[in-house]
Amino acid sequence: MNIEIDKITMENIVKEGWIWKKGEHLRNWRLRYYILLENGQFLGYKKNPNDHFVKSPLNCFNVKKCEILEMNGNKQFIFVLKCFQQNSQVERIFSLSNENDRKEWIHALQRISQNKLITFEQQSNKVTLQNFEYIQVLGRGTFGKVMLCREKSSQQLFAIKLVKKEIIRSKQQLNRTLTENRILKRINHPFLISLKYSFQTPNHLCFVMDYINGGELFFHLRRFTKFTEEKARFYTAEIVSALSYLHDLSIIYRDVKSENILLDKDGHIKLVDFGLCREKLHCGHKSKSFCGTPEYMAPEVIRRIGYGREVDWWSTGVFLYEMLCGVLPFFHNNYNNLFSLILLQHPKIPKYISAEAKDLLKGLLRKNPQHRLGFGSTGTQNIKNHPFFNPINWFDLDKKKVVPPFVPQIDNEEDTKYFDLVVACESTSFTPPLHSPLGKEDDEMLFGRFSFKDKRE
Ligand SMILES: Nc1ncnc2c1ncn2[C@@H]1O[C@H](COP(=O)(O)OP(=O)(O)O)[C@@H](O)[C@H]1O
Ligand SMILES: [Mg+2]
After folding, report:
1. Residue 445 pLDDT > 80
2. For 291-301, how does the pLDDT look when each residue is reduced to its tens digit (9 = 90+)?
């Protein structure tokens, strides 16, 4: 095959695994190992090329702008791809052994097939605020609010995050929202929130996401004060999995904290809030911006000496400490004093904490990022191999096969009992801007290509 195949790296693999493919001439099913790359190449191998030194694939499809059709035949869980092979359009039939696997593949293929930015004008049925009924406020953040809403056409519930343009302008936080939009469009992971649409109005930028009804881990932790080691292990493992996925995409998250971690209806975590993420930070590269939530900030952020992905492992350590001990490892009402504690103090680890948990906490909370557990190219693996995580099967974890220690009791789909009552009582109205809305030109220049529509069903 004389097609140029992109170098396969951790960064550009979107998804890989075994799929049954129907032969074009002999119409029998063959099991092939497929690798989907960020550039749209969908490569099929006889053997897993990671384990064998196979270089050229048997198939090389291009799935940018492909059409995907889901169907059920005598072999269940089929999908048909209308895609390109070299310059000609072909139709190929694939099959998975279960619905979940098929969903995940279709999801990944759809994301790549529509990777091209969809501008507002190109959307055939434009999404507006009028498409939704607003039910209740779920959360209030720095730049606006998140509300529970129902899409009128589908009657489906969503969470909508509304960010006021005037606020992000005056706080010079434009980048934060644009980064969040870019990342939400890009990610696809069981423990990260997924975006349905993003669109803008003259006054707001809007993100429509799946509604995650189990509430913030902050809410649950406040109720129980602390968690058992088993419970903390489960949540930490899912966080490690989500963060390592982001790191593999050269994204650092920078805002691990209990308010940004939600529980879904089955008790698995969903990380939300990608505004503080830093993109294109490859392993070994450094960022200098001073950001994060003070209590969770790593010493190297405070020192402003440049930092990398290890800051996420530090804040994971802070959060694990909080779950196990019921208090933050570093706390002071005055930020300068808090920062001194983070730089100098070694947190006390109570006697009831097991030796494994204690060792993990010490490893994650090492002040020097180069000595911290999680440092370097094998860092994530070192965390996953830590004895505290011995009971965790990481492969099953990513497939959501590890049974959550707590399942939220959801009475009906609109149930919001796990959200803060004080916030919930706020009005769902949209307050008009204090200043007059922007001129059209200005608006297009700043927020021009914001819109996105997820084509998943
Ligand atoms: N998809 C969602 N489902 C349910 N609640 C959500 C969702 N997204 C956000 N929230 C709630 O809204 C709060 C604020 O959202 P977040 O994205 O963290 O905004 P901010 O950037 O302002 O912190 C979250 O802490 C959470 O309580
Ligand atoms: Mg937040």
Report:
1. no
2. 899 999 999 99
- 11-49 confidence digits (pLDDT tens): 788 999 999 998 877 778 899 999 999 889 999 999 888
217-398: CATH topology is Transferase(Phosphotransferase); domain 1 (1.10.510)
Round to whole Å and give the CA distance between 229 and 350.
13
DSSP one-letter string for 203-219: SEEEEEEE--TT-BHHH
- Residue 438 scores a pLDDT above 80: no
- d(CA 20, CA 32) in angstroms, rounded, equals 6
* Residue 275 to residue 253: CA distance in whole angstroms: 9
Which residue is it, tokens 């975006």? 195
Q: How far is the CA of 25 from the centre of ligand 2 (A)?
A: 53
**Tens-digit pLDDT profile for residues 192-224:** 999 999 998 888 889 999 999 999 999 999 999
- For residue 9, the model assigns a pLDDT of 74
Q: Are the CB atoms for 209 and 158 separated by under 8 Å?
A: yes
Q: What is the pTM of this model?
A: 0.73
Residue 82, annotated as binding a ligand: no
List 51, 101, 248, 255, catalytic entry: 255
> Rounded to whole angstroms, how far apart are CA atoms 117 and 448?
11
The domain 13-124 is placed in CATH, from the list 3.20.20.70, 3.30.1490.190, 3.40.50.2300, 2.30.29.30, at 2.30.29.30
Whether 391 has a pLDDT exceeding 90, the answer reads: yes
Atom of ligand 1 nearest to the CA of 216: 27
- Cα angle 194-450-210, degrees, rounded to a multiple of 5: 20
Best substitution site from 146, 196, 268 to test ligand 1's pocket, by max atoms within 8 Å of Cβ?
146
User: Which is more confident, 70 or 377?
Assistant: 377
Ligand nearest to the CA of 142: 1
Tens of pLDDT, residue by residue over 335-372, are 999 999 999 999 999 999 999 999 999 999 999 999 99
398 is catalytic: no
Instruction: Assess contact for 42 and 55: CB atoms under 8 A.
Output: no
CATH architecture under which domain 129-212+417-453 falls = 2-Layer Sandwich (3.30)
**What ligand has the least distance to the C-alpha of 419?**
1
Which residues are CB-contacts of 400 (< 8 A; sequence separation ≥ 6)? 190, 266, 268
Q: Which residues line ligand 1 (CB under 6 A)?
A: 138-139, 141-143, 146, 159, 161, 193, 209-212, 216, 259-260, 262, 272-273, 275
